[in-house]
Each structure stands twice: as C-alpha cells, then as structure tokens.
Amino acid sequence: MNSLFKALNDNTRREILEILKDEDLNAGEIASHFDISKPSISHHLDLLKQAGLVTAIKNGQYITYSINTTVMDELVQWIMKLKD
C-alpha cells in the first residue's frame, strides 16, 4: 500500500493516470503530453507499474501502458471501509 500512496503523491504520475484513463499509450506518446525528459517519464511509469497502477505489455519494440483499474477499485473499497 505504501508504493501505491507514493505513486499517487506526485502530480506528474496523477496526470499520467488521467491520460491513460482515455486510451492505452506507449512511453513516447505519454511523454508528448509533458515538458520533461523521456527518462523522467520512464521513471514515473516504473513507479506506477511497481504500485500496480499501470500494466505494461511489450508490443514489438514498444511497451504499451494501460491503467489498472483493479488496484483503484481495491483502494476505493479500503477507503470506504475506513469511513464506516
């Protein structure tokens, strides 16, 4: 759970999740939405992947990233339990 909150604690990573909610993209396509280096985007994607928030599927020479809603569902359920 710590890696999940660490991943969500960064504005760039939250923006990446917002972008991926609409469509699956590769790292270059994601990077085109930002004014930061591609290695920085790769670092953010790695942290999101470690937290289970995105999945990565190798497609030829590209890796396609997609949002993992299962982890989000689990997080919402956990928060709702705290509320009760």
From TrEMBL:
Span of domain HTH arsR-type: 1-84
Keywords: DNA-binding, Transcription, Transcription regulation
Keyword Ubl conjugation listed: no
Gene Ontology MF, one: DNA binding
UniProt-listed InterPro entries: ArsR-like_HTH, HTH_ArsR_DNA-bd_dom, HTH_MetalResp_TranReg, SdpR-like_repress, WH-like_DNA-bd_sf, WH_DNA-bd_sf
UniProt cross-references to Gene3D superfamilies, sorted A to Z: Winged helix-like DNA-binding domain superfamily/Winged helix DNA-binding domain
Pfam families linked: HTH_5
Entries under SMART domains matching the protein: HTH_ARSR
Superkingdom field: Bacteria
NCBIfam families in UniProt: HTH_metalloreg, repress_SdpR
Protein name, entry field: Transcriptional regulator
